[in-house]
Amino acid sequence: MIELKDITKVFRHKNRITTALSGVSLYVPKGKIVGVIGESGAGKSTLIRCVNLLERPSSGEIYVDGQNLTQMSESQLAKARRNIGMIFQHFNLLSSRTVFDNIAFPLELDKTPKSEIIIRVKELLKLVGLEEKANDYPSKLSGGQKQRVAIARTLASNPKVLLCDEATSALDPATTRSILSLLKEINKRLDITILLITHEMDVVKEICDEVAVISDGQLIEQGTVADIFSHPKAALTKQFIASSLHMEIPVDYQENLVASPQAGKHPLLQLEITGQSVDAPVLSEVARLFNIDSNIINARMDYVGGMKFGVMLVEFISSAENENRAIEFLKSKNIKVEVLGYV
Amino acid sequence: MSDSMIEILIKGTWETIVMTFVSGFFGFVLGLPIGVSLFITSKGQIRDNKSINKTLAFFVNIFRAIPFIILIVWMIPFTRLIVGTSIGVEAALVPLSIGAAPFIARMVENSLLEVPSGLVEASRAMGATPFQIIRKVLLPEAMPSLINCASITLITLVGYSAMGGAVGAGGLGQVGYQYGYVGYDTTVMNVVLVLLVVLVFIIQTLGNFISKKVDHR
Question: Under CATH, what is the fold of the domain A2-243?
Answer without folding.
Answer: Rossmann fold (3.40.50)
